[in-house]
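ok so heres the complex, two chains, lmk if somethin looks off
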Amino acid sequence: MTAATSPLPTAQFVAFVGEYLRFAGDNADELLALTVEHFVIIVQAIAIAVPLGVLLGVLITFDDRAATVVLWLSGVMMTIPSIALFGLLIPYFGIGQPPVIVALVLYSQLPVVRNTYVGLTQVDEAAVEAGRGLGMSRLERLRRVQIPMALPVIMAGVRNAVVILIGIAAIGAFIGAGGLGVLIFDGIDHANVPQIVVTTVLLSALTLAFDYGFALLETFFRLRNGEEIEIPRGYALLTGGSQ
Amino acid sequence: MIEFDNVTKVYDDGTVAIEDINFEVAEGTTTVLVGPSGCGKTTTMKLVNRLEDPSEGTVYFDGTDISELDPIELRREVGYVIQEIGLFDHMSVGENVATVPELKEWDRERVDARVDELLELMDLPPADYRDQYPRELSGGQRQRVGVARALAADPDVLLMDEPFGALDPITRENLQDEFLDIQEKINTTILFVTHSIDEALKMGDRIAIFDIGELVQYDTPREILRNPKSDFVRDFIGSDRTLKQLQVTNVAEVMREEVPDRYQGLVERERRDDIVAVSPTDSTQVALSRIIGADTDALPVVDGDRIRGVVTEDDIRQKRAVTTGGV
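and the predicted structre for the whole thing:
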């Protein structure tokens, strides 16, 4: 009764995962620090991008021609490779985080502006007409009727933007912005597969976490607007099972 | 209260919506604008809260040319109800009703008290409905909230654009009846747009009948039924003009107060509850239909516990002959 010549599949699996787990264990501090750094870059970019995008989205509802131009331009932004955009921004913003944050803000405009514009123009016309007839000024209609009713759609745009940004921010490490991208570039340089895999898994987890968080917000706004939707289990859990 | 003086409205694309309209709406009355679609009745109404401005002529509000009033301020003094209701779905029923008082920056307590008062008036008990959301309500309830919202800041004038048009017939009739009661309590000047002549006859103190872009007759319901000014009006009223006349005439107008001997037995039987009766506020249409239904020629008129007199089939026939000049 000698041992099998090849290890059992589970043993193989443990050896395979073990390598990654060992890497994650040995570098936990650095991984955490870079995840936080990545997180902070994203939060800064969103903090600028969302107000800017919503403002633009609101402004272009006043003028159809401006809407066409702005939506076209923000669409064009998406076609520029991030590496090229960083290169274009370095002369103005230097290297490190500033050019990356500017680039992230530019990339997030298409989903945020488009969803704000669509959300506002799709608001129930009767409600807007009633608001007008009851003596709301244009701004009061925006603030009290259109924006609250469009919030779920705007939130969906923000969610979309964040998912794009987390990936692009990783490339920012190339010009010294830090974040989880640092480990990926380093892993490529040293052919360190566990490092690349573990970092990528973390990036995906970060993306999913943001995505889920914003999905919950969107659900909250939809429910508050009285929309009849199926309540996601996570939402029910967070709110104690009730709406 | 509201006066249209030679008002013409031509839209930017050249469509003439209304031409040379003249009429006056007296304070505290309900005036119904009625006509086929595209006749300009809604445009006429929108001139009052400046959702449209006249191309020519002047609209006066309480003697003031409304083009001199700030449209936003004006609209807060004029209630507005539309067929699509247009409730704000993201706000509770209470917040919807509070819209105009909040725009006018009333203090919190006054707003809350007013909201409860109106929900009560609209037969939507505040405790049950204030915190509900519009999508949880039925069509009829939603339009009640729409009317409450329009009345919230106690407007001098209430504009209603086919308010009951999208409701099913039973709900519509109930709301019409309730609104007639409410109308008496609030004493507001009402301008009401509909395409249904029946609704106009039921709701209006006065009726303005529109043909394409022009006002063809402006009169009381009875006068319109008695003397339609043109073939258009006659056609618009329809072939059941006689029935409609019965509808706008009360039993009180045709009943006899003294009870003739031969009806004494009838009154006795009414006391014993084995015969149908009518009330003085019922229409003669109701009375006639009950007379026919009961296979008799007269009915007692009962007001609460009191027998006020009788109404006979002959009386109803004769009254009609008098008012229509025998037509």
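quick notes: The longest helix of chain B spans residues 169-186. thats all i got rn
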